[in-house]
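Supplementary Methods, section 5.1.

A reviewer requested that the exact input to the structure prediction be made available. We therefore reproduce it here, unchanged from the version used in the analyses.
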Amino acid sequence: MDKKFKDEVERLEPDVHQFLSVEFVWKDGSHAADRFWFVPCNRLDSVDRNETTFEFRNIWYLDGSQDKKLVFNSSQIGNCHAWMDKFISGQGGVWISDVLKEKIEQAGVTGISLQHYEETN
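The structure derived from this sequence is encoded token-by-token as follows.
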């Protein structure tokens, strides 16, 4: 991730997540770019179990079906803006709030894919 992403996350959730500095270099060893490896430190049970239509088998089985829906619960998310869900394995990745999405878009962050999901209270 670039510094703009890091700055926006830290504005909303100071001292919560880890950002590890990474230097990218060209084949000749010269400096190419400075970036950050983002380690989200919020682990939540954020899925609305009544509204989500994917199967739960000790973890959410997100099989890619277009006729099923994943729904988050805002009261379970609380004031968190970046998190990993405890019950979504690696394919889920990092989830972010609408507020953080808006902030990183306004900051001009590129190179990430964002998808909106329904949310309940």
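The longest strand covers residues 31-39. These observations are discussed further in the main text.
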